[in-house]
Amino acid sequence: MRYGRVRPAERWRGRPVREGSTTGCGGSATGWRWRLDLRFCIVGKQSPVRSPDRRTGLFCLWDPRVRPGALGSTEHHMPNTTAQPDTTTQPDTAAVLVGRALLLDMDGTLVNSDAVVERLWREWATEQGLDPDEALKVVHGRQGWATMAALLPERPMERNHAENAVMLARETADVAGVVPIPGAPEFLAAVARVPHALVTSADEALARARMGAAGLPLPLVRITAESVGASKPDPEGFLKGAAELGFAPAECVAFEDSEAGLAAARAAGCLTVGIGPRAAGLSPDLAVPDLDALDVAVTPDGHVRLSRRRSAAAV
């Protein structure tokens, strides 16, 4: 994983912003004005001029107020429009996400807990007369009681919450095989000064147990099962995480590995980084096999720039 800082913007004259530039805007002798939303944007390859209605991260807007010859501005403009990935021209592997804060899932994103999750949930599914393989398709990303409700919709919710308390206790006590996702220690060190929060379906005790077993530092801001009334794919956790950090969801990048988690992040209005094989087929804005495949750069003004490392293997 490569980390570094983006150099201050250089003056430029009406050209598309180079990948990685922090230039805010510029003009040309013909009156074209380029603007880049640095609060949250996608930057890819240099591309032709787009119409004002297309959003590619590079905003090429006709601005008659720019007088001919007013070239080379480096003033940062913050348009209200949030840039979205142009999937017709920018595959997720080429995308660059820029945000002001990060919302991080835990299981499958920072720690690999698949061994214990699958071991305990297979046992539970077998006890309920369910197909364990089918049950595991629902488990990832959700709180335990929500998984039980999805698999056994006719069962009283009180029983789901009671069995979930037992499951949480068993999961907290069993950390055999819990290890960090490749690149997680370096990633957390790289974003230590970037506003970030843990947004997990685990409760506080389980989050502490698994992050501790993986040797990872706990983010100071944590949205755990106790913090919310609804489980992913409901966006409540990500909305609360963004609010705790003091940013709008559209200024945050969410990291997730599961279908439920990615759905929750999108519903909250965040852009998404999908980690690992579960996320690869779910069309996140940026997909990487693990955190070791992610390049992280923090700009002088505090934005974080995320991209896939060129040499990273396919997800």
TrEMBL record:
Please report a single Pfam family linked to this protein: Hydrolase
Gene3D superfamilies linked to this entry: HAD superfamily/HAD-like, Putative phosphatase, domain 2
* Protein origin, superkingdom: Bacteria
- Keyword vocabulary terms for this entry: Hydrolase
Q: Which GO terms describe its molecular function?
A: sugar-phosphatase activity
Write the protein's name: Hydrolase
Lineage of the organism: Bacteria, Bacillati, Actinomycetota, Actinomycetes, Kitasatosporales
